[in-house]
Specification:
Length: about 400
């Protein structure tokens, strides 16, 4: 019953998190696009202090948008702030992290072959990791580095790369990815709370008092918002990556995260330039080639494991599935962590294994992703034999 309830909480908060995330990132994409697409306004608008304007059509209506150089003469009654999207995305994400990775630490966060942490230690390490990364970023923002956008970008990339490596020393492969993603998300939400919002409040109060706002606040906010802009695509990649063990469960999963994250940030650059009227499709082409290069580099090698010999019969294979997989993957799992077969997969019989898909199973066994956290204690010999057997079966099935 408890596991069932946890699943519902997980479902609800994941759903909520995706909705708020769409609202946040969607608004952020929209405003970046807006800012970069503004055109020179007619003179009568310029006289009112308007710096740029644009026309759009959407949902059956015309929209006229104007951006003021400083602010309107009089504060409008309703001013939309766009901050709750960011805060609720962070809050729901944190709750989800807690439900999936901290309540389920022995399943998803701890990998005894990486580091044998107890549950409280693993949760402490997770929270400490997030806090340390966040403090380092906020610390860097207070050094002269903030006056050099490119250098800051490079340093930030290195910090995140190191964090990916450190997470990989502490947590399970999946847990490591999600912690790097959560760190980026926390940095982004922190940028809204500690940089962008104060700058906007400064702007509003200056306009209300008829003073000119402090430009330093605005520049600082701009830097933070540029970082958020480049982090969006890498964060989204990490959030969906937990469906793809070929990436995160790879021997060099931490480096793949760095490589794909870097490519994603680079691809974002294309859109930023394009909004400014600079069209450089070569960036996307290079990005796609690099991504294809990564995919080729980690493609499973042809014959890593010797094929199962004749004596390795289907009966022997099923016996291994029975002892190492069926503890979870059966209608009534005996593993205390599960009340229903995970991923809806039962592997009791040859037919069930076949219908689950030989290639799919081979993928998760080869990468070491299954048995989950090796809770059922599969040996290396069994793994090699099963992978060999699955390859043979896969060939015959073609
Ligand atoms: C401790 C419980 C446990 C054991 C033991 C276990 N699994 Fe799993 N398995 C899971 C969970 C949980 C998931 C869902 C994981 C997810 O959502 O990424 C899963 C998912 C899968 C998937 C689907 C992956 C996908 O995304 O396509 C396959 C295939 C699989 N397991 C095969 C196996 C095989 C083969 C074994 C035995 C060698 C095994 N599992 C042993 C818990 C287990």
């Amino acid at each position: 019953m408890e596991a069932y309830l946890t699943d519902w909480f997980s479902l609800f908060f994941r759903w909520f998190h995706v909705i708020t995330g769409i609202a946040w990132i969607g608004a952020s994409f929209y405003f970046v696009w807006l800012d970069n697409s503004l055109e020179e306004p007619p003179q009568w608008k310029k006289d009112k202090g308007i710096k740029g304007d644009l026309w759009a059509i959407h949902g059956g209506g015309f929209y006229e948008v104007a951006k003021y150089r400083l602010g309107p003469e009089k504060m409008p009654e309703h001013l939309h702030w766009f901050k709750w999207e960011a805060y609720t995305t962070w809050l729901t994400g944190f709750v989800l992290l807690w439900i999936v990775y901290y309540l389920g630490a022995d399943r998803y966060l701890i990998d005894a072959t990486t580091l044998a942490l107890s549950v409280p230690e693993a949760i402490g390490a997770g929270l400490g990791f997030l806090a340390a990364g966040f403090i380092i970023y906020e610390g860097l923002l207070r050094t002269p580095l903030r006056y050099n956008g490119l250098a800051f970008g490079i340093v930030l990339f290195i910090v995140l790369a190191v964090s990916s490596y450190v997470a990989n020393l502490l947590f399970s492969a999946r847990g490591a990815y999600i912690h790097v993603g959560a760190l980026m998300g926390s940095i982004m939400a922190g940028n809204v709370l500690f940089g962008i919002m104060p700058a906007q409040r400064g702007l509003v109060s200056a306009v209300e008092k008829g003073e000119s706002p402090d430009p330093a606040l605005g520049e600082f906010a701009k830097l933070r918002s540029t970082h958020n802009n480049y982090l969006t695509l890498p964060v989204l990649f990490i959030m969906i990556s937990n469906h793809y063990p070929m990436v995160y469960a790879h021997e060099y999963g931490w480096a793949l995260l760095v490589a794909i994250g870097g490519i994603a940030a680079f691809a974002r650059h294309f859109f930023n330039l394009r909004h400014k009227g600079v069209n450089k499709p070569i960036i996307l082409v290079i990005g796609a080639i690099l991504l294809a290069g990564v995919a080729a580099a980690i493609a499973p090698t042809k014959a890593p494991i010797k094929p199962a010999d004749e004596s390795f019969t289907d009966t022997k294979a099923i016996a291994i599935f029975q002892s190492r997989c069926v503890t979870c993957h059966s209608a009534n799992p005996t593993d205390e962590l599960f009340t229903a077969p995970p991923a809806g997969l039962t592997l009791d019989t040859l037919e069930q294994v076949e219908s689950a898909g030989y290639a799919r199973i081979k993928g998760v066994v080869e990468t070491g992703y299954m048995p989950l956290a090796n809770r059922s204690g599969m040996t290396d010999e069994e793994r090699a034999a099963i992978v060999g057997w699955l390859s043979e079966k896969g060939k015959k099935g073609q």
